[in-house]
Amino acid sequence: GEDVEQSLFLSVREGDSSVINCTYTDSSSTYLYWYKQEPGAGLQLLTYIFSNMDMKQDQRLTVLLNKKDKHLSLRIADTQTGDSAIYFCAEVSGGSYIPTFGRGTSLIVHP
Amino acid sequence: DVKVTQSSRYLVKRTGEKVFLECVQDMDHENMFWYRQDPGLGLRLIYFSYDVKMKEKGDIPEGYSVSREKKERFSLILESASTNQTSMYLCASKRDGIGTGELFFGEGSRLTVL
Which of B46, B55, B56 is nearest to B87 (CA)? Predict the structure, then answer.
């Protein structure tokens, strides 16, 4: 089946930028997502990008999509301790309405 | 404010017991999902439903069943709980049709099977 890969952990210092990376295999992906899961909670959509876009910016968040390399990244500027969470990359293709999730990246922000 | 509500946040059950996990959404969504989440394994799809009384197996349906008698409610059933079903269970819902395809998640039910 289709696959979404991301590293399991990322540790950054408060105030630095965080970059969380994701690769996927489905070349027919239409939407790609970043979900955030805070401790003890469910997942919440953080941002998404349509496959015909290269970049999307929303306040401190920047999403970059490289369709040729099937690579998605999420950059969080000025990372705060409140950004500590698990971040899931997900994609949905035109042939299916069920998203495929990566395993999640735990972002740890040190004061 | 849209909401997916899971009835139990924490449950402790014994091996062999029957377990019901309930999920209700108030957004009139057609599609509902049950995932389990385990450290290092991410989210794995157990079952999903695209309409009342309809269900489809996900990636790991063994040991589970589901029920969708009403549009807003999707139940996950463990007929005979086992210790390897200790996990966090997440329910989600999604609208049909054109849109971003966003999933709305409940807060999760953490099940411990002793």
Answer: B46
Please judge whether A103 and B45 are an interchain contact, meaning their C-beta atoms are less than 8 angstroms apart.
no
Chain A residue at shortest CA distance from B5: A42
Phi/psi region, residue B27 (left: phi>0; alpha: psi -120 to 50; beta: rest), is alpha
Q: Which residues lie below 8 Å from residue B48, measured CB to CB, with a gap of 6+? A: A98, B31, B32, B33, B34, B55, B56, B58
DSSP one-letter string for A38-94 = -TTS-EEEEEEEETT-SEEEETTEEEEEETTTTEEEEEESS--GGG-EEEEEEEEET
Token pair of B78, please? 């463990």
Task: Tell me B85's DSSP state.
Answer: G
Within 10 angstroms of residue A109's Cβ, the number of other Cβ atoms is 20
Q: Which of B4, B103, B108 sits opposite A99 (nearest CB)?
A: B103
Q: How high is the mean pLDDT of chain A?
A: 92
C-alpha closest to that of A101 among A30, A22, A42, A40: A22
CB contact under 8 A, B100 and A48: yes
CA A28/CA B35 separation, integer angstroms: 24
Residues A47 and A63 sit within 8 Å (Cβ to Cβ): yes
DSSP at B41: T
Q: Which residue of B has its CA nearest to A34?
A: B102
Tens digit of each residue's pLDDT (9 = 90 or more) over B1-43: 669 999 899 999 999 999 999 999 999 999 999 999 998 888 9
